[in-house]
Write a structure and sequence with these properties.
This protein has 153 residues and is an alpha+beta fold. It contains three helices and nine strands.
């Protein structure tokens, strides 16, 4: 995704990120302090459209992910977002997942460079379970908006 360019960079006053990891998205839209206050008050958004998106369907997905990650996912309610890690046998972080289940599939977003390795790992761990991991980065984008009560300022 080195040539990725978010359409949100066309917004007025958008300033592109200068860096390899988040290249292709805006660092801010002209006034970083105002934008930070808007996010803290429950408004605003963060463009994460450069991140890899993985969708896992199948009736065994939550119990399977529960067994593969550091997070309790077998009882995850639809619409609840969580973070989870996939660790190496030595306990090193291999993948950091930010995920949510919609009742039919589990959706996760990951660092752009790790999506291929994550999907390959997930495919290798399927065995006889009914799960179907897919890289859907080309079809979906992540934009984060605060949904909870605003923090006091």
């Amino acid at each position: 995704m080195t040539d990725y360019r978010s359409p949100l960079l066309d917004l007025p006053d958008a300033v592109a990120v200068e860096g390899a990891v988040d290249r292709g998205v805006a660092a801010h839209y002209g006034d970083p302090l105002r934008e930070q206050r808007e996010l803290a008050s429950g408004n605003g958004f963060v463009d994460l459209s450069h991140r890899g998106v993985v969708r896992i369907s199948g009736p065994d997905r939550l119990s399977w992910l529960h067994n593969l990650t550091t997070q309790r996912l077998d009882t995850l309610a639809p619409g609840v977002g969580v973070d989870a890690l996939i660790l190496s046998p030595q306990g090193h972080v291999e993948h950091h997942l930010q995920l949510v289940d919609d009742g039919e599939a589990t959706w996760m977003h990951v660092e752009p460079a790790s999506v291929d390795a994550l999907v390959a790992f997930l495919m290798s761990m399927r065995f006889m379970l009914q799960v179907e991991p897919q890289d859907v980065t080309a079809d979906w984008a992540v934009v984060w908006e605060p949904l909870s009560e605003p923090h006091p300022t």
